[in-house]
Design a protein that fits this description.
The complex is a heterodimer of chains A (241) and B (276). The longest helix of chain A is centred in the C-terminal third of the chain and has 16 residues. With 241 residues, chain A is α/β, with parallel strands linked by helices. By secondary structure, chain B is mainly alpha-helical. In chain B, helix 6 crosses helix 7. The longest helix of chain B has 35 residues. Chain B starts with a helix and ends with a helix. Classes of the chains: A alpha/beta (241), B mainly alpha (276).
């Protein structure tokens, strides 16, 4: 469903993503783990065409992102790390706008608004929303089109515990619908609970990609994913210094 | 490029800007200034009370040449260097960069045009009620030229925002452009002519006119008001060289169109290669 082949991205002299290859299968939940600046966001942005790779290739739903950007984007819904909407528009207007760009009817947008539990807030201006509510609206926007792939860049970063719980429900609900989900997170517990597989980024390299259970098998049975994550980060960061 | 996303993006941009208090403030101030200048603008020349369309347009011309470029540059850079999260979400939709740029530009232009048109309309109604409709056609043509000037500087602001990317840097560039085109260009052109002579000087003066959209609108407006002779022999020579008023205005409008299209086209080309 998503395939990256020898993806490399340089920003000037900085090597942000270094020869990364991976595949995410249909219906799979894949989590990117890694310290800040390790290449998770750049890789995600490359998948949705926001970052142009220096070399390598990305296929989304069988479509080469660089060759057919618009077609590839039609298969993907992307939630940026820090989603922002114009403060003087209402939640309903925001949803109508993104629905119109995807050719979705207003009644479907109304339904998505109800589903996201925005009753009572749909006519309020975004300027009156809390950070968590803006993030929730972002989730409503990306779940609006029936795209087979969801990309979520640190989606729980600004959510309170209740919001995190709702996010987990959202992800599982999307998985039930057969969607392929790729998300990045700093919360290792989140990856452990939601992901089928994880990929660990260190200094632009994807140093490990395996199922959560598989990773545990590789190490001692009683180790947590946190121990394994730290093992990879310390080992590979040491190699790059 | 398809029209549908352009239309939806333009509509959203218009809504956002119409609800922005600064757009309203600009509309009110512009309206007051246009009406005020139409009323008081020629007191120094011994005229008092509401002027007719020809005199009002000539008086308002300088206001338009100073304020419209500044407002268009400011609104354009603000919109195109907006929040990263908002741009990322928009550009991750199945839309082309050219569709986003065109949509945002049209929406912004519509909001500036609404503010300007309301100012011109209020003044126009007052002029008609006091001095009659003589010269209305020239006044309307001048309004269109002013809107053209707004679009040109909006287009320049998009290029500036695309190149600079950061808001503060883009504002710096935009202010420099305003200073260059509105204040510095003519001084520079006159300075260069001092170094030239004869037909070379004339040719340089003629060509330099097209290098500044502010001058293009200034000259086209004066031709429309039938006051190109204000330039003296140079104005008469210009009209002769271009083949009369109609031909001159057509050529100047074509130049203005190029000024409107080229910066935006360049911005689209650059943005296609840019990362977010």
């Amino acid at each position: 469903m998503i395939a990256a082949r020898h993806l490399t991205k340089k920003f000037g002299t900085i090597l942000a993503v270094d020869d990364v290859s991976f595949e995410v299968k249909r219906g799979e939940i894949f989590a990117f783990l890694g310290p800040n600046g390790s290449g998770k966001t750049t890789t995600m942005k490359s998948i949705v065409g926001l970052v142009k790779p220096t070399s390598g290739k990305i296929l989304v739903h069988g479509i080469d992102v660089q060759m057919h950007e618009k077609g590839a984007k039609a298969s993907v819904s992307y939630l940026p790390q820090r989603v922002v909407f114009p403060e003087n528009l209402t939640a309903r207007e925001i949803l109508y706008f993104y629905a119109s760009l995807r050719g979705i009817s207003r009644s479907d947008a109304d339904e998505a608004l109800e589903k996201a539990r925005f009753n009572g807030f749909s006519e309020k201006y975004i300027g009156e929303f809390s950070g968590g509510m803006v993030q929730r609206l972002g989730l409503a926007v990306i779940s609006l089109p029936d795209t087979p792939i969801l990309l979520l860049d640190e989606p729980t970063a600004s959510l309170d515990p209740q919001g995190v719980k709702r996010f987990r429900e959202f992800v599982l609900e999307q998985k039930e619908q057969g969607k392929t989900i790729l998300f990045s997170t700093h919360l290792l517990a989140e990856a452990e609970q939601l992901a089928d597989r994880v990929g660990i980024f260190v200094s632009g390299k994807l140093v490990a990609q395996e199922s959560v259970d598989g990773l545990r098998e590789k190490f001692l049975k009683n180790k947590t994913i946190e121990d394994m994550y730290l093992h990879y980060v310390e080992t590979f960061e040491g190699q790059h210094q | 490029m398809t029209f549908s996303p352009v239309f939806h993006i333009a509509r959203q941009e218009l809504t956002v800007n119409v609800r922005n208090k600064w757009t309203l403030i600009f509309a009110v101030i512009f309206g007051i200034l246009v009406t005020g200048i139409a009323y008081f603008g020629m007191i120094a020349e011994g005229f008092s009370g509401m002027q007719n369309f020809a005199r009002s347009s000539a008086s308002v011309l300088n206001l338009v040449l100073y304020i419209i470029p500044l407002v268009s540059l400011a609104m354009g850079t603000l919109s195109f260097t907006g929040d990263k999260g908002s741009a990322e979400l928009l550009f991750s939709q199945p839309v082309l960069s050219s569709e986003v740029i065109m949509g945002k530009a049209l929406g912004l232009f519509a909001s500036i045009a609404l503010s300007m048109a309301s100012g011109f309309m209020v003044a126009g109604i007052m002029i008609i009620s006091k001095s009659g409709p003589q010269g209305l056609t020239s006044y309307l043509a001048f309004t269109v030229l002013s809107l053209g000037l707004a679009f040109v500087f909006l287009s320049l602001s998009i290029l500036v925002a695309t190149l600079a990317r950061r808001k503060s840097k883009a504002f710096g560039f935009a202010l420099f452009l305003w200073f260059f085109f509105v204040l510095f260009y003519d001084i520079l052109a006159i300075g260069i002519t001092l170094l030239l002579s004869g037909s070379t000087m004339n040719l340089f003066l003629f060509l330099s006119l097209f290098g500044n959209p502010v001058d293009v609108v200034r000259v086209a407006s004066l031709i429309i008001f039938d006051t190109a002779t204000i330039f003296g022999p140079a104005g008469a020579a210009l009209l002769r060289f271009l083949g009369g008023s109609a031909m001159s205005v057509t050529l100047l409008v074509c130049a203005l169109l190029l000024w409107a299209i080229l910066p935006m086209a360049l911005a689209v080309k650059i943005m296609r290669r840019q990362d977010f």
